[in-house]
Request: fold
Amino acid sequence: MTTRMPRRLLALYAAALLLLSACASPGGPEDRIASTDAGSQLLTLSTWSSYNRFLELLGKECPDIELGFLPYAGANQTGYSWAQMRGDDIPDIFITTQILNQELAEERLADLSGYSFINRFPTPILDQVSISGGIYLLPVNYAMYGTFYNQTLMEEHGWEVPENFAELEALCAKIREAGLIPGVLGTQLTGNPFSAVFNLAKTGWLTTPEGMAWERDFLAGDAPAAGMWEETMAHVQRLIDIGMFQTDPEDRNNPDMLLDYLGNRKSVFFTSVMTVNITELPDTGDKLGIMPYIGEDGSKNVYMYSPISFIGLSRHLTEPGNEEKLEKALRLLSLLFSEEGQAAFISAETPCVLSVLNNTALPEDSLIYDAQQALWEGRAFPMTYAGWENVLADIGQAYKEWFRGENGMDGPGCIARMDALQQSALAQSGHLYFCESTADFTLEETGALVGRVLGSAAGADAAMVPIGTFYKEGPSLRACVTGKLYAGKINTDTSTTVLPAFDGKYAVLSMTGAQAKELAQAGFDKEGDGRPFPYVLSVRGGGELEDSQTYQVAFPMDSYTGETAEACAAEVREGSLRNFLREYLEKQKMVSPDDSWE
Reply:
């Protein structure tokens, strides 16, 4: 059992929905306004930093549209958005990075296919997001991916961008003759080798109806990789043989590799999934180029894309009584999918980010001009991710071993590893869920759960955990619990949605009962400017702390001020809150908001 939060702190938590007014003055406590009630006309949405410039535009163009923010600052924003979806607790304006469950999207979101702003999208884009003939989530903009190359170096040698494998093979021979490496591939993250192979498969069979049927069946355990992937793996081996998939001995990250290999003219091509914030290499001024992934005969050279985010509207907005809110939400989307709205997401620092609109033409010398044409013409495809989460990293590891010449791995071995990994993942699927929540938790109750977990692991007498509220242009929420736990089965992805973003350390402070209760009453005033985050105080055994007695109180890292740390002899300890929570939930098997801490 936990001590309950004083009414004043409950009122502070109620302020998690904040009014963003076009004429509001930034910075002060007046920016935190009471929660919306059932009849409020505020449109609610989660806090997404990438939308800040668009929200400024919205304030200028539509000053009558007021927004209530639901702050989330955990480490798994995509996972939390879908946890909210499963709990039927999404905000009016739903934002996510992946369409993880089409059936749930169709059930919980409004169909946007009948509204006029849909006509601004290219048909191939709408085809990609269509669900049973309806449109429920629209991409906000796209990051485009292809093979980077040093354009200036190519021009100096008189080398042309290849259009098929034969031309690429001949060019790689010339590059080697010049003493250069043809191409490098980043392998620090195994997602890069995974994407390199899958992107090449999309130049052939994987984007055909047969290939899409295979992917669906493979993920369900009804089709093997053997018998389908041999041609692609043979193509990958030819690219290895001509020097296109060299790896970095130091296994550095993608940005450092691009600057070194292309910037220092060590190689011509760089094949890794990344976006860049430059169009010229800094030391030499060499121009950067990007070309599609090259297929065998060049008839289907393709780019990949990944939406920065998707946006949709809660189906509740279409219910009687919400006509005014729906009208405002549709105006917001209409502005978002205008040229001016799209421009709010694109700048000189985002040269690989592309508007989704039909009529937003790029100059021909733009880095991604050809990628835009490919998107409009249906020669660009989404990155493979959804459905592959359980095996993607391990499959990528097999490809990495192949590219690096490790453990005798080759194309046939990778095919066998794909089948083994998927079958293993499916066999273990019944064990993916290790606990169940019997009810929806409030944010306060979720904070109390995290407090019980941390306090138990630390061997403390009590725990104090800050929970999120929102201040316009206010302090960071990084140390706060900002996600709620919903009723249902719990796996690793679900458990990470409720934790603060920081992990790896925590602290134990020596405090009298009076000090602990005073701090709980005041909240975590991170910046010392009168804008505190409410604390949830959890006590072992329940009940009240004695004012004069000294207790050991556990805190998540960075969830207390320096003054508090000094006054209470803070002891920083190593330990993963993520692991603590997993172990606790596995032991409990069932959790509810009323659980006690003994």
Q: What stands out?
A: The radius of gyration is 26 Å. The CA atoms of residues 437 and 488 lie 5 Å apart. DSSP finds 21 helices and 22 strands in the chain.
